[in-house]
Amino acid sequence: MKALLKNYHQSPRKVRLVADLVRGKSVSHARAALTLLPKKSGPAIVKLIDSAVANAAHKGMATEDLYVKTITVDKGVTMRRFRPFGRGRSGALHKTLSIVKLELGSKAGAKAPKTGKVAKVVTEKPVVKKAKTVTTKKSASAKSSGETK
After folding, report:
1. Do residues 22 and 71 make contact, with C-beta atoms less than 8 angstroms apart?
2. Is residue 123 part of a domain?
3. pLDDT of residue 4
4. What is the DSSP letter of 66?
5. SS3 content of the chain, % helix, strand, coil (to 5)
6. Does residue 38 sit within a domain?
7. Which residues constitute the domain of residue 91?
8. How far apart are alpha carbons 100 and 13 in whole angstroms?
């Protein structure tokens, strides 16, 4: 199952430190590690993991067998702010936001249950094309000879 966190107000470099910590761990181990971690992005990633687990439960997957398959942190929008500096000058501040993509996978033995929907098998009758009858056109000389009679 997938979950997405867009426009998170922290730089991607800082969020990647936390993302690297939980990559490949089971959901329960990842939650335990993040609750004890003194980083700002810890609670946000816990919330993202909970969202992905809820998505998996909605699809009917077993939530005990889930682990963090992939987690990527990309650069989002950059907010530009300005503040005054000395001697009457101003300087630009660039506040970069993050986009966190999370995908949970199930362990090898666990499979998603069937939803009960059965795909319809459509059997079509073979289409038989009828052969066209070919009529030959009379040549122009034959027509002209026939008209003179």
Report:
1. yes
2. no
3. 96
4. E
5. 35, 30, 35
6. yes
7. 2-106
8. 12
141's CB contacts (< 8 A; 6+ apart) are: none
- DSSP 3-state of 40: coil
Crossing angle for the helix pair 27-35 and 42-59, to the nearest 10 degrees: 160
What tokens were used for 27? Answer: 């959901």
pLDDT given for residue 22 in this prediction:
95
Domain assignment of residue 22, yes or no: yes
CA 40/CA 60 separation, integer angstroms:
32
Give residue 137's pLDDT: 65
CATH number of the domain where residue 66 is located: 3.90.470.10
Per the structure, the count of domains in the chain is 1
Average confidence (pLDDT) per 10 residues, the chain, 149 residues: 95 96 95 95 96 94 93 96 95 96 82 53 61 64 56
- The answer to pTM > 0.85 is no
The pLDDT of residue 143: 56
Residue 99: HSE in the Cβ half-sphere, 13 Å Cα cutoff: 7
Give me the pLDDT at residue 32, please.
95
